[in-house]
């Protein structure tokens, strides 16, 4: 059994090192057990996303346009993921390393079933080509594909599954990450027929709310303005998430703060590049990642001194339905 656990942990670690270097770096700050569980949860999330999109560790193999699968095929794959996820949550036999790893983590932390099922609901939105008309629509998607991952990560870091105040902050960080992703990947997403930016924002900027409208290089100046607007919205969720660090164990707070700082820096690059933001994928260099991680550690240290202080109100931020 110990050998099997090491195998699951090793393969999960490999998945995160290839799929998210930013999170892999930040996760070095976790305790060994927390790091193992975070890697296992990430591996399952990454696997499910890849199955739906026909990718490998978040990247298309071959021509991305050729990967734009039919909704029927995507929904069939989603149905299989749901069957395996429910089996894992119920302690029943499952297929594959990723589901075995997820099962181990979910059962060890008594993970509420609603959270992993909420993630799959986000993939259903992709499978059904959900239309994002307003910011509210986009935020719902951000919660389902990223905010709920923050919630599950918080639980494996030791947050009580009933501590909604802290879990809201964890969701805020996931939403901020996803808004940053959307801003960075607007053009790449349009190339495979997906538009996550609110259509009313695009149309208000004079851009047709379609993939063709986004890909029209004549619209790049206005598209850069829309991206900046998305990142301004992300900043509100980054700010709210920072207060949640007070409720995490020190090493968990350090890891989360480092990841938060590194990922937020991607938004800085998108803003800085303006209309050229999509000429090449925005990513931070390793030295910059280390600098950002250090900045995150300072934030985590400050949070530890304020551990006993009440968290401020979240204002009008989008809030998940309990």
From TrEMBL:
Record flagged with keyword Nucleotide-binding: no
InterPro entries in alphabetical order: Isoprenoid_synthase_dom_sf (IPR008949), Squ/phyt_synthse (IPR002060), Squalene/phytoene_synthase_CS (IPR019845), Trans_IPPS_bact-type (IPR044843), Trans_IPPS_HH (IPR033904)
Cofactor entry: ATP
Pathway linked to the protein: Carotenoid biosynthesis; phytoene biosynthesis
Alphabetized CDD domains for the sequence: Trans_IPPS_HH
GO BP terms, alphabetized: carotenoid biosynthetic process
MF annotations from Gene Ontology: geranylgeranyl diphosphate synthase activity; squalene synthase [NAD(P)H] activity
Cross-referenced Pfam families: SQS_PSY
Domain of life: Bacteria
Keywords (A to Z) from UniProt: Carotenoid biosynthesis, Transferase
UniProt record similarity statement: Belongs to the phytoene/squalene synthase family.
Protein name: Phytoene synthase
